[in-house]
Amino acid sequence: MHKIPALDARLAAAAAYVRQGCTAADIGCDHGKLSVALAVQGRCKKIIAGDIRPAPLASAQRLVAEYHCGSVVECRLGAGLSVLHPGEADDVIIAGVSGVTICEILQDAPRGFYETEKELHFVFVPATKHPVLRRFLAENGFHLLDETPVRAAGRYYTVMHAVYTGVPEAHDAFWEVTGCAVHGADAREYLRHEAELLRKEARGASEAEKERLETLAANVEEEAERCS
After folding, report:
1. What is the pTM of this model?
2. Quick one: three-class SS letters along 13-63?
């Protein structure tokens, strides 16, 4: 029996949020490791692996063939959520792109995508711009259920688990920076890293904005110290 393809901390955390027995969509699947790992684990009844680029999708197809999981994983060429029909997937994973790009993918969803009767769950692994993504999710009817901060390849990330409710939420700037990323082995260092990003942003800001950003950074650092 094949061993499960090795996943880094980001993809392992993403896999842990995928619900047992669901139909999952791996949007921007790249090499296909996550899709194949989910299939080999028997976690999903079906996995749709989509990518806009032919070369990475071909790599994913080869990996699917190598692990003999073509009956579970279907590879599709296309941009973002356009590879899916409304109601086709239960859990949607978007990893390996910036938070801004994830927002754009969600905005460009096919007509009626969010209007199905299914409770759509999402797993996001933004490479950058985490606060931008949290703000977009709250304003556009996505409720953030949980996050797992992780360290991979020497950098800090957070893996977000959200559900689409269609009900906008209001949050402050502190929440946009911290979200639910306040627990786990890497939470303290993740929040310290986010505080440092705020301080870097403050260095090029106006005096009023600089004061706001530095105060926010200090509050985020205080939150980091409360992490166990």
Report:
1. 0.95
2. HHHHHCCCCEEEEEECCCCCHHHHHHHHHCCEEEEEEEECCHHHHHHHHHH
What does the pLDDT look like over 81-97, one tens digit per residue?
Answer: 999 988 899 999 999 89
Contact 99, 132 (CB under 8 A): yes
- Please, are residues 51 and 97 in contact by the beta-carbon 8 Å criterion? no
pLDDT, tens digit, 9 for 90 and up, residues 165-222: 999 999 999 999 999 999 999 999 999 999 999 999 999 899 999 999 999 999 999 9
What would the two tokens of residue 109 be?
A: 């969803």
**Residue 94 in contact with residue 125, Cβ under 8 Å?**
yes
Token look-up 């070369």 returns: 55
